[in-house]
Write a structure and sequence with these properties.
Layout lengths: L2 H9 L3 H23 L2 H17 L10 H33 L12 H18 L4 H12 L4 H8 L3 H21 L1
Length: 182
C-alpha cells in the first residue's frame, strides 16, 4: 500500500489504512517529540495525541503537503498548547500567591469526601470500560491499571507494539465517546 492510497482509504475510515499510517509515521513523530522534550513518556503521550487528532481530522489533510509535515505540525501544536496551559497555570498560581500576604501551608491529603468522590468516579470509569470490547478492555487494564509498558503489553498479548499502540488509541477514543454520551 502506498502512502497516498492509505490516506485515501483512511479518509474512508479504513482501519488497515490507519494502522499502515501509524506504523509508517510513529517513529518520525515520536523521534521529533523526544528530541524536543527529552522525556519518553511525554513524547509518547504527545505522539498518541498527535495520531488521535490527525486520524480524527484526516479528511482535512491537504495532499499538496507531505503527510509527515502535517503530522509534525499537529504534534508541534499539541506540545505548544501543553506548554501554554502549564505557563498559564503557573502564572495564575504566582499571581494568587502574590495577592496573599500570609502564606498558608495547605493540607493536600484527601478528605473523606475526596476519597468517596474518587471511588465513585473510579467505579463509573470501570463500568464504562466494561462497555468496550474485551481486547480494548485488556489493553487499557494492562497500560493504566497494571502500568505495563507498550513492550510488556506486546509480550503479554503476543502482538506487535504498533498494534498495541493503535488498540490503546482506539480504546481511549471509544471510552471518551462513551463518557461524553452520558
Amino acid at each position: 500500500m502506498e502512502i497516498d492510497e492509505a490516506i485515501i482509504r483512511a479518509k474512508k475510515n479504513d482501519q488497515k489504512a490507519f494502522n499502515y499510517l501509524l506504523h509508517n509515521y510513529w517513529d518520525k513523530v515520536y523521534g521529533f517529540q523526544l528530541k524536543r522534550i527529552q522525556n519518553e513518556n511525554d513524547a509518547e503521550d504527545i505522539t498518541i495525541q498527535t495520531f488521535s487528532k490527525a486520524f480524527d481530522k484526516i479528511e482535512s489533510y491537504d495532499n499538496t503537503y507531505a503527510f509527515n509535515t502535517w503530522l509534525i505540525t499537529i504534534s508541534k501544536n499539541i506540545h505548544i498548547d501543553i506548554i501554554r496551559k502549564e505557563k498559564n497555570s503557573i502564572k495564575q498560581a504566582l499571581s494568587q500567591t502574590e495577592e496573599n500576604e500570609v502564606y498558608l501551608v495547605a493540607d493536600e491529603s484527601p478528605s473523606v469526601e475526596d476519597k468517596l468522590i474518587t471511588e465513585q468516579n473510579l467505579a463509573k470509569l470501570l463500568r464504562d470500560i466494561k462497555k468496550l470490547k474485551p481486547h480494548y478492555q485488556a489493553v487499557i487494564n494492562l497500560r493504566y491499571f497494571q502500568e505495563l509498558s507498550y513492550k510488556e503489553i506486546s509480550e503479554e498479548l503476543k502482538e506487535p507494539i504498533n498494534n498495541i499502540k493503535v488498540k490503546l488509541l482506539r480504546a481511549k477514543k471509544l471510552l471518551a465517546e462513551i463518557i461524553q454520551k452520558k
